[in-house]
Structure formats: structure tokens, C-alpha cells
Amino acid sequence: MSRLPTISSSSKIINVARFQYFQTFMLRKITFNLKNLAYRVGIFGVLYIDYIEES
Prior knowledge:
Elements: H1 3-54
């Protein structure tokens, strides 16, 4: 019986670590997508401004 608490606590620690890793992974993915989107929007914005100035 004395080993059960240690097993449950270690599995809890593993779950917390897994959750934090998943959170950081998702955050990294979201920031990467936002940077990609901002980059594309920036390029299209520059092209659009050039197009407006020419016409």
C-alpha cells in the first residue's frame, strides 16, 4: 500500500509535464502561424499599396 501514493504522484507529475509540453508546443505553433500570417499580410499590403499608387 505504501507504493501506491508514489506511483499516483509520479503519474500526476508526468501528466502535468505532458500538459505543459503540449501547451508550449501549441503556443509555438500558434505564434509561428501568426508570424506567417503577418508576413503574408505584409507582402500583400505592400503589393496592394504599390498597385494603388500606380493606378
